[in-house]
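Pinned message: reference record for Large ribosomal subunit protein eL21
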Amino acid sequence: MTNTKGYRRGTRYLFSRKFRHHGPLPSSVYMRVYRRGDIVDIKGDGGVQKGMPHKSYHGRTGRVYNVTPHAVGIIVNKRVGNRIIPKRINVRIEHVKPSKCREDFLRRVKENDVKRRDAKERNVFVQLKRQPAQPRAGHLVKTKNNPVVTVHPLPLIFRESHQMFKTKATLICFHQNQLAGIVRSDP
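Predicted structure (C-alpha cells):
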C-alpha cells in the first residue's frame, strides 16, 4: 500500500492527547494574553481540530506577528530544500503556548547587570561570560588513619557437578565459599 497524501497523514500519535489528559481544555489556555513579538511554541492539540497547524510545524518555535480574537499569526522558519524560509501561519491559541527559550537568557542579563554595577562601585574586574565546567581542584589524601586498600576482583571458582542433573552438565559458581548461582548449559 502506498503512502496516503492526506493533510494529517501519519499523525495518529503526534496529535494524540496524553494519558489521562483527555477532555476539555483548562480555562487557563484561553486566558493567556499574546502580543506581537512574543515567542511561542507550537504544539498541536488533538482535542481541538479547528486551527491545527500542519505536522511540519509541530514542536517549532516562532514569533507572533498578528493577533486575532481566536488565533495568532506566527512567523516560523521552515527548511525547504537547501534554504530556510520564514513562513507565516495562522494557528488557534489552543495549539500555542508561551516559549521558555529566553528565560535563562533574561535571568543572566539581570544577574550580569547586578554584578557589573557592584564591580563598578568596587572598581574591580568581573568575568561576565559563562565558563565551561572546570576540572576538579587538586587535593591531598592523608593516610594516617586511612590505610591504603588495594582493590582487585575476587577469583571465581568453577566446578562441574553431575550429581544434581545427570543428563545436563551444570556449572556451580562458588564465590568466597558461598553459592552465588547455578548456570545450566543447553543439551
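Pinned by admin. Summary line: The longest helix spans residues 103-122.
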